[in-house]
Please model this.
Amino acid sequence: MPTSRRDFLQRSAATAAGVINGMGSAGQLMSSYLVVYVTGTFGWNALFYLFVAFSLAGALLLATKWNYGCRGTGVGISRPGAIASGASST
Model:
């Protein structure tokens, strides 16, 4: 059991990393079947349109969380350019 908020955040971060890793592996496993199905059924142009749709969906999901972060925990991006400069977010 987590005893403090910091322990809870560390466990949550580990769980989130595991879920993201698992989804990435599942996506890699399914991508070859999806590519074969779409190109065989609808042609190559449809595959590229599907990639564009997935990219836009990912961008929209990212845009909704861009300024979101755990307030007061140092998690999240507090100022523009923090990633590029390597500065911490606190």
In short: The two ends are 27 Å apart (CA to CA).
